Structure formats: structure tokens, C-alpha cells
Amino acid sequence: MNKIVKLILFGFLIWLVPFLISLLIFPLKSTVNPLFESIMPVVISATVVCLAYLYLTGIEKDYLKEGLTAGVTWLIISLIIDLILFLPASPMQMSFTSYIMDIGITYLMIPIITTGMGMTTQNIKINS
Fold first, then answer.
1. Cα–Cα distance measured from residue 99 to residue 85, given in angstroms and rounded to the nearest whole number
2. 58 SS3 class
């Protein structure tokens, strides 16, 4: 699969999987909100780790750069899709500030995870 297509497809999946899980567990948001808020970052990190692994195994060099590029790209994809859904003129109607404080900052884990995995892969390749 073309690297750019893979990058965009995986970015969409990184947004879609947690979104679908959030729909399934949404009743917790009103009954046990702390549990809902704890589950979602776990789902995001698990999704990012799995897809970053699949993405980086197809890379031959520049693992750190590729990890950072993937993470930033996936972060931007998630933010764009969310902002379409959550801003005041959208179906979910949330202010930008509320969105950033409730959801947006959590997405910073995406480039942190992918960059860390890129660094680790690069170190493994150099030392083997």
C-alpha cells in the first residue's frame, strides 16, 4: 500500500476506533464519568500503538522522522474530524475551549507515542 494512503487511512482509524468505542460506552459519561474519562485515553493509546507498529514495520529507514511525521499527521486528522463534529455550528455543539480541555489535549499522546516508537525502532536497528 502507498505510504501516503496508509498514513491517511491509519490516521482516520485512529480517530474512528476511539469514536466508536465512545459511542458504545457513552452511557458511562453521565453515570460514571471518571470511568469514561479513564477508558478513552487507554483506547486511544492502544489504537495508536497498534497502528504505529504496523506503520513503522513497513518503513526501511528514518524511523524517528517517520514516527514524528505519522504522529503529527494523525493528530491533525483527529483534530480536523473532531472540530467538524464538536464546534458550535456542528451536531455536538461544544466551544473550542471546552473541546481542547475535554478532548483535544488527550490527542497530544498520538505524536508522543509514535515518536517514542520511532526512536526505539531506530535504536534497535542501529544496535542490531
1. 10
2. coil
